[in-house]
Amino acid sequence: MQGTILIIDDEDRLRQLLARLLSLEGYQVLEANNARNGLRVLEQEEIHLVISDVKLPDKNGIELSAQIKQLYPSTEIIVLTAFGTIADGVTAIKNGAFDYITKGDDNDRIIPLVSRAIEKAQLQFRIRQLEEKVSKRYGFESIIGESKTIRQAVDLARKVAVTDTTVLLTGETGTGKEVFAQAIHQASARRSGAFVAVNCSALGKEILESELFGHRAGAFTGASRDKKGLFEEAHKGTIFLDEIGEMALDLQAKLLRVLETHEFMRVGDTKPTRVDVRVVAATNRDLEQEATAGHFRLDLFYRLSVFRIELPSLRDRRDDIPALAEQFARQSALKIGKRDVKLSPEFEQKLRQHDWKGNIRELKNVIERAVILADGPELTPDLLPYDLLYAGKSVSNGPVYDLAQVEENHIRYILHHTNGNKTEAARLLNIGLTTLYRKITEYQIN
């Protein structure tokens, strides 16, 4: 099926003839004899193209075209009239119609015109579907968790997203700051623009300056041609500056100028470049304390922290751990072709007990590892890393003084390290294989 067309015309014979003609071309054709019925069809069906007469019993077709484009922007419209005028044609196009043709005089144009209109509409429908997928993947709906702390952070982010205000995301490493930045971008009026992320700690000062602001050819050794910076790439969109606290002081001054004037100088340039960019910054440092110590510009801190959102650590939202783990397990299983992966209650309990100093990033890595190691569909505690599995196993919650306990823990660790290979474990422990088997039995190691 090449596309779906709705013909709105009160002349039954002409409407049916046109419907028959377009059906023979492979299109699915629906009919309506007035504007009201046409709008009802549009509510119920996905229509790529509307072909509407100008003179309808209940509405002017040119006014109808404006209403349809407002309600269904991806749908294209061709306006038909028995007595065409230039003024009507201009108005129809301004209202969003694809074209305006006269009945009888333009019969040879109908099929090619319909083909082009359908092609444009289908492209717009595909773009809309992709945007919906992107929004679902990177929007606020992708942020998992129902704990009070994460919901408060999401509510704040939703409110600021619709503005153009600069946002500062704070919190420990691995708490999902880039996920929040993406969601803010997707919920903003800039979502059709680019989202550009840069880690300020990953590059040296000179390279970071060139990456952010670009350079002119000959500005330094190796600069053989002009290069656009990331601020230019993010024009009309959002730039996410991660680990902003690691940025050199002289670069901070240039960033402050961009925030205040929306202008910057490329490296080696003499004229300023103007951009329209929203800035979302993130840090795991206390920037106010860094500014007091002279490591961060206080004026930049105030400019960045117009709207600050603190993201909670994973240990402060333990009730969200099972849901996050299930999501990561599904994603990891999909990547390696596994199905129906689930978490055992004991596995969940171990996850809840861990402190997760690496937060969500650490949890994701642990789950991915467990999914890879699992032989069956269920994730069990023995698939967890040794330090997580035996964390806190001590005498009276203090240091382990019992020699047997130390020996048992060490044997478990080596067996875990060798993935259960007892011969290799005995070699690493520098004991005989028979001795290892005896120890395994003694300590009831599974």
UniProtKB/TrEMBL annotation:
Which SMART domains does the record associate with it?
AAA (SM00382), REC (SM00448)
Annotated keywords: ATP-binding, Nucleotide-binding, Phosphoprotein, Transcription, Transcription regulation
- Sigma-54 factor interaction domain residues are 143-372
Supply the PROSITE patterns for this chain: RESPONSE_REGULATORY (PS50110), SIGMA54_INTERACT_1 (PS00675), SIGMA54_INTERACT_2 (PS00676), SIGMA54_INTERACT_4 (PS50045)
Positions bearing 4-aspartylphosphate:
53
Pfam families on file: AAA_lid_14, HTH_8, Response_reg, Sigma54_activat
Annotated Response regulatory domain ranges read 4-118
Question: What's the protein here called?
Answer: Sigma-54-dependent transcriptional regulator
Q: Which organism is it from?
A: Larkinella insperata
